[in-house]
């Protein structure tokens, strides 16, 4: 089967994020970049599915600046087979990303598309669902698994997404409000992944070396015939309101007394 | 005049409280634009939940029937989009719950609408505030399309007030698409405690609990509180995923949030910074959680929480 996985280049969540003085965007100087953590989980799941369903192929796709080739390489170093970079320097909103991905998918015709549930820069949580609708496919969002990340299944690197016997559908456990829902979705389908689906592998040194030789095809939204003028523009970026500094209390008695008579919450 | 359509969330005839926050957001938009508000309730039990929603003084459309029994994104988004078109809606508003996040983008794609997600505030007719980079920045976004879909963060909008006269409830005739997705089962996490996102008090535990949530639950019992958890706890399988508070879990804003054995990573703070009063209990005086806590106690949670439960009991 052919599995397509999307990877977004995002600011490293360990970097300090500060707003620019002119409120146009965040300061990017000195910020590190990496693959969106949810997308790494999507790559890991794709690799597990590939390796239990040979022959199969995993293709990683990113929409972004030339530098996003680094995040595609990181997916290839984890074990993906080849990459596609749709180059665009300016901001592309999640809707633009979904329409670009539709064009790529129309050409690639994968059996399954795995995406992160949300990009940790824009925190949108919409691209997968938009793409599913544009393609007219079924979707299973927020994929998780019943077993914990410390379970024997996880240690054995079993995929959490289970293909049915005829390989025409997949069963997906989803994290929803109030519990875990199981859906069966016909392939091809869009699955967006949550944090508890798996623990992504680290790339080994030999695999990093091998990844350097794997092919990355490059194209542009224009070549794909997609207009990426955003439907949703970011007009201003501000720092979040700061909470006033609190106090340290010496003991439980003082704490409870303050909660009672000062904060009046108990 | 344009209409704003509020897509309600319900389960088994019970209207979810987050819907009333979505209604408040819609009322704020309507105040700017003079639009009318209508509601739509979809799925098994929709008729009953629609009565509840209509009590807020808006006309409500009902979509029921076997095809819509389960909350499948394909069928529910199709129904909502069709009702939106028939009602001549210029804007669709939904609470940014798991359900809302699942269906809103598909509605937007069907309507050719731009989508502002997880909105914190209405700035104007086309502009909305929303958090980015785990709450490290607040962006003002502008939806440039004539049609708009907005999902709203329920904790940022109070529940709407009941209207003087109830609105009408009418069944909507919509076509049932053939979904490519099938519901298999729902493994519900049952709890006698208040719902995490609606509770007045939340007591959350982190990795510092080492998986032993008894002290957390004891305190939650005396405070009639919901129990929350950090990602570390949920990843380890110590507590169900449904309890995770943070950037990728639930966003809560109770009157009182007690964080015990939680370090205070930015992704956790993203889900609880809006709480009125924050208490942090941590062994490590340098833990970042103390930077957002109104009251910080440097202590072992296994000693402090039972003591706190006793002290609260004495007050009652
Ligand atoms: C993309 C992404 C999304 C994420 N989303 C979320 C999210 O939604 N929610 C979330 O919570 N995290 C999230 N995280 C994880 C987050 O970065 C932290 O790893 C996590 O919050 C840490 O959990 P913790 O505070 O329980 O554990 P730790 O950071 O290990 O902290 C444990 C704390 O317990 C204290 N402690 C230990 N023993 C005791 C004791 N006996 N008494 C008192 N204190 C004690 C320690 O001093 C320490 O401060 C996300 C991470 C990423 C990358
Ligand atoms: N520029 C991009 N390139 C590749 N994938 C993307 C891009 N933007 C979003 N995605 C994918 O869509 C998911 C959801 O993103 P979003 O809806 O924008 O929060 C991410 O986890 C990625 O898998």
Helix content of chain A: 25-40%
In the CATH hierarchy, the architecture of the largest domain in chain B is 3-Layer(aba) Sandwich
The structural class of chain B is alpha/beta
Mean pLDDT figure of chain B: 96
The parts of chain A where pLDDT drops under 50 for at least 5 residues are none
The CATH architecture of chain A comes to 3-Layer(aba) Sandwich
Q: Quickly count the domains of chain B.
A: 2
Q: Report the sheet-strand fraction of chain B.
A: 25-35%
Choose one word for the global shape of chain B.
Answer: elongated
CATH superfamily of chain A: HUPs
Give the overall pLDDT of chain A as a whole number: 97
According to CATH, what is the topology of chain A? Rossmann fold
Name the hetero compounds present: flavin-adenine dinucleotide, adenosine monophosphate
The neighbouring-strand order within the major sheet of chain B is 9-8-7-10-6-1-4-5-11
Number of helices of chain A: 8
CATH class of chain A: Alpha Beta
Characterize the structure shown:
- The complex is a heterodimer of chains A (266) and B (316).
- With 266 residues, chain A is α/β, with parallel strands linked by helices.
- Chain A has one domain: Rossmann fold.
- Helix content of chain A is 28%, strand content 27%.
- Chain A contains eight helices and 14 strands.
- In chain A, the strands form two sheets. In chain A, strands 1, 4, 5, 6, 7, 8, 9, 10, 11 and 12 form a ten-stranded mixed beta sheet that branches. Chain A has a two-stranded antiparallel sheet with strand order 2-3.
- In chain A, helix 2 crosses helix 6 and helix 3 packs across helix 4.
- Chain A is globular and about 65 Å long.
- In chain B, helix 5 runs parallel beside helix 8.
- In chain B, helix 7 links the parallel strand 15 and strand 16.
- By secondary structure, chain B is of the alpha/beta class.
- In chain B, the strands form three sheets. A nine-stranded mixed beta sheet of chain B has the order 9-8-7-10-6-1-4-5-11, with helices on both faces. In chain B, strands 14-13-15-16-17 form a five-stranded parallel beta sheet. A two-stranded antiparallel ribbon of chain B has the order 2-3.
- Chain B folds into two domains: 169 residues, HUPs (Rossmann fold), CATH 3.40.50; 115 residues, TPP-binding domain (Rossmann fold), CATH 3.40.50.1220.
- The longest helix of chain B is centred in the first third of the chain and has 16 residues.
- Classes of the chains: A alpha/beta (266), B alpha/beta (316).
- The interface between A and B is large, with 83 and 89 residues.
- Strand 14 of chain A pairs parallel with strand 17 of chain B, so a sheet runs across the interface.
- The structure holds flavin-adenine dinucleotide and adenosine monophosphate (AMP).
- Adenosine monophosphate binds next to helix 1, strand 4, helix 3, strand 6 and helix 4 of chain A.
């Amino acid at each position: 089967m052919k599995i397509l996985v999307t990877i977004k280049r995002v600011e490293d969540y360990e970097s300090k994020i500060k707003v620019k003085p002119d409120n146009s965007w965040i300061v990017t100087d000195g910020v590190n970049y990496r693959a969106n953590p949810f997308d790494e989980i999507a790559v890991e799941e794709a690799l597990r599915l590939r390796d239990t369903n040979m022959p199969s192929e995993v293709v990683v796709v990113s929409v972004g600046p030339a530098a996003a080739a680094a995040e595609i390489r990181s997916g290839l170093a984890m074990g993906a087979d080849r990459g596609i970079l749709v180059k665009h320097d300016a901001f592309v909103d999640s809707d633009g990303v979904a329409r670009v991905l539709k064009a790529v998918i129309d050409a690639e015709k994968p059996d399954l598309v795995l995406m992160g549930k949300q990009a940790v820069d824009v925190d949108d949580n919409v691209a997968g669902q938009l793409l599913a609708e544009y393609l007219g496919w079924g979707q299973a969002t927020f994929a998780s698994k019943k077993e914990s990340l410390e379970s024997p299944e996880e240690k054995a690197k079993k995929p959490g997404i289970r293909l049915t016997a005829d390989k025409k559908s997949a069963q997906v456990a989803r994290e929803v409000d109030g519990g875990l829902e199981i859906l069966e979705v016909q392939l091809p389908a869009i699955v967006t992944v949550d944090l508890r689906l798996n623990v992504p592998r680290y790339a080994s040194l030999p695999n990093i070396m091998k990844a350097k030789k794997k092919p990355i095809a490059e194209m542009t939204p224009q070549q794909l015939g997609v207009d990426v003028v955003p439907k949703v523009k970011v007009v201003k970026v501000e720092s979040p309101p700061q909470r006033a500094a609190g106090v340290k209390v010496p003991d439980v008695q003082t704490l409870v007394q303050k909660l009672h008579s000062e904060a009046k919450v108990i | 005049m344009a209409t704003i359509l509020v897509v309600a969330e319900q389960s088994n005839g019970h209207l979810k409280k987050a819907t009333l926050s979505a209604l408040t957001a819609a009322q704020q938009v309507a105040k700017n634009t003079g639009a009318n508000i209508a509601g739509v309730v979809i799925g098994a039990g929709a008729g009953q939940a629609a009565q509840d929603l209509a009590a807020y003084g808006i006309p409500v459309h009902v979509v029921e029937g076997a095809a819509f029994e389960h909350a499948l994104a394909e069928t529910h988004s199709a129904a909502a989009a069709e009702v939106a078109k028939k009602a001549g809606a210029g804007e669709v508003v939904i609470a940014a719950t798991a359900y809302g996040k699942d269906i809103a983008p598909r509605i937007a794609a069907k309507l050719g609408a731009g989508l502002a997600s997880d909105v914190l505030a209405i700035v104007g007719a086309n502009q909305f505030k929303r958090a980015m980079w785990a709450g490290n920045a607040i962006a003002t976004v502008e939806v440039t399309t004539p049609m708009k879909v907005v999902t709203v963060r329920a904790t940022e909008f109070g529940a709407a007030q009941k209207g003087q006269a109830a609105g009408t409830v009418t069944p909507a005739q919509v076509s049932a698409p053939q979904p490519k997705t099938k519901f298999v089962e729902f493994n519900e996490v049952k709890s006698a405690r208040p719902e995490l996102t609606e509770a007045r008090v939340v007591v959350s535990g982190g990795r510092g609990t080492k998986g032993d949530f008894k002290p957390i639950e004891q305190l939650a019992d005396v405070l009639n509180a919901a129990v929350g958890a950090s990602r570390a706890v949920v990843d380890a399988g110590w507590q169900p995923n449904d309890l995770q508070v943070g950037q990728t879990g639930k966003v809560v804003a109770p009157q009182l949030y007690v964080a015990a054995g939680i370090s205070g990573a930015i992704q956790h703070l993203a889900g609880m910074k809006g709480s009125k009063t924050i208490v942090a209990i941590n062994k490590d005086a340098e833990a970042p959680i103390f930077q957002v806590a109104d009251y910080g106690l440097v202590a072992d949670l296994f000693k402090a929480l039972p003591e706190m439960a006793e002290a609260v009991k004495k007050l009652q």
